[in-house]
Task: structure prediction
Amino acid sequence: MNDRSKVIACFREAGFRMDKDRFEHRLIAQKFVYLLRLKGVEFVYPFRLYVRGPYSPLLAREYYQHANEFSRCETESTLSPAEADAVAGLTGLFDKSPSLLEIGATYGYLAYEMHQSPEQAYRTVRRMKSFYSNEQIVKGVNRAKQYLFVPTDEEKAALDAELGEWQRAGIQSMRH
Result:
């Protein structure tokens, strides 16, 4: 399967029919593919950080040259179960919101490509995306973390233990 076919299959899975003439659609396409790439879906498209976040000129060339395929989601390609799960998770968290995808993808680029600490990446996003509200930035960053962060078994156990204590405390307070 070539990358264009895989991208179109991802968009079809997400229910996204791209219109290359709409800026929001181009932004969604770029950030959607980038976040899928960070999640482990393999694409050859190289991304660099631009004003509006990670951007691939090669991907842009594809959706301009093959606009009909993208708008109709025409492809014979199908996704693996893992790729379909990655698309479902991304769609569920970001709901194809241009602003949240832009914020989340920018955070991901800073944290994963530039190896900034979570705190530094957050501060950089706030500075770069000052035209978005603090609430939008927090939402976008938190959703990126939720989507990209896979806790280890030890982290899961520690979280379960902590949540268990909170639940017991909540149940105890309801009894009194």
Observations:
- The mean pLDDT is 91.
- The first strand starts at residue 48 and ends at 50.
- The CA atoms of residues 3 and 43 lie 6 Å apart.
- The two ends are 61 Å apart (CA to CA).
